[in-house]
C-alpha cells in the first residue's frame, strides 16, 4: 500500500509505502494481516525503513491506533530496521492511524481492532483501588460479625447474680447478742454471712 504525496519542498516524489502480509492461523481459523514494514521514499529512493511490531488484525477487520510512532513515548511500534542506515535519524508518528489491506468493501474501513491493551495504566489503577476498597469492606464486615458473635457469647455465658432468699424467722435464729457497753448488737452465726448489725 503506497501513499504518494508528490513534491513537497525539497522532497521530490515523497511517498510512504506500507508492506502488508497475510497469514492463516489454525487456532483462530481465519486469515490475519500484519504490517510488516514501513518505508519512506523521496527523490526516487528509499530513505528510511522501519519494522512494524504488534500491528496486526484479522483479515476481515481493520487496524486502528491512536498513535503509531517510532518514538518511545508512544510505545515505539515502528523500529528502525538497522542502526547503520538513516532510519534512526527519522521520527515518524501517525495520529489516529487506521489501516486495512484486504477485503475492503465499498471503500470503507471494516470493524477496527484497536491497539489499546486490556491492561493500560488507568485500568490497572482502577483494579488496584477496587481491590483495596473490597479489602476494607471485607474487614468492616468481619468486625461487625465478630462484634455480633461477642454479644451472643456474653449473653450465653453471663447469668444474673443469684442471691438466696432469707426468711424472716431464720434471721432471728442466726442472731446472737453482742455484749457492749450501751447498745445491743447482733452478729450472724451462719458461715455464709459476715455482716454485723448494730
TrEMBL record:
The gene is Atp6ap1l. Residues 117-154 form the V-type proton ATPase subunit S1/VOA1 transmembrane domain. The keyword Hydrolase does not apply. It comes from the Eukaryota. This is VAS1L protein. GO terms for cellular component: bounding membrane of organelle; cytoplasmic vesicle membrane; endomembrane system; proton-transporting V-type ATPase complex. Keywords: Membrane, Transmembrane, Transmembrane helix. Residues 1-102 form the V-type proton ATPase subunit S1 luminal domain. Its main location: membrane. Belongs to the vacuolar ATPase subunit S1 family. Gene3D superfamilies: 2.40.160.110. One of its GO terms (biological process) is regulation of cellular pH. It is found in: Membrane. It is a single-pass membrane protein. The chain crosses the membrane at residues 118-141. InterPro entries: Ac45_acc_su, VAS1/VOA1_TM, VAS1_LD. PANTHER family: ATPASE, H+ TRANSPORTING, LYSOSOMAL ACCESSORY PROTEIN 1-LIKE (PTHR12471:SF3), VACUOLAR ATP SYNTHASE SUBUNIT S1 (PTHR12471). GO terms for molecular function: ATPase activator activity. It comes from Psilopogon haemacephalus (coppersmith barbet).
Amino acid at each position: 500500500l503506497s501513499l504518494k504525496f508528490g513534491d513537497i519542498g525539497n522532497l521530490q516524489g515523497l511517498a510512504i509505502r506500507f508492506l502488508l502480509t497475510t497469514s492463516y492461523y489454525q487456532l483462530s481459523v481465519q486469515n490475519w494481516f500484519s504490517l510488516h514494514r514501513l518505508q519512506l521514499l523521496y527523490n526516487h529512493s528509499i530513505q528510511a525503513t522501519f519494522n512494524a511490531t504488534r500491528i496486526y488484525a484479522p483479515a476481515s477487520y481493520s487496524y486502528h491506533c491512536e498513535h503509531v510512532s517510532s518514538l518511545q513515548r508512544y510505545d515505539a511500534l515502528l523500529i528502525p530496521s538497522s542502526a547503520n542506515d538513516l532510519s534512526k535519524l527519522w521520527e515518524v508518528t501517525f495520529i489516529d492511524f487506521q489501516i486495512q489491506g484486504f477485503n475492503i468493501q465499498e471503500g470503507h474501513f471494516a470493524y477496527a481492532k484497536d491497539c489499546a491493551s486490556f491492561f493500560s495504566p488507568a485500568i490497572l489503577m482502577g483494579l488496584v483501588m477496587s481491590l483495596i476498597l473490597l479489602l476494607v469492606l471485607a474487614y468492616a464486615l468481619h468486625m461487625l460479625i465478630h462484634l455480633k458473635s461477642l454479644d451472643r457469647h456474653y449473653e450465653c455465658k453471663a447469668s444474673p447474680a443469684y442471691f438466696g432468699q432469707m426468711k424472716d424467722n431464720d434471721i432471728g435464729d442466726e442472731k446472737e447478742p453482742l455484749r457492749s457497753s450501751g447498745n445491743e448488737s447482733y452478729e450472724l452465726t451462719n458461715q455464709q454471712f459476715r455482716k454485723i448489725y448494730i
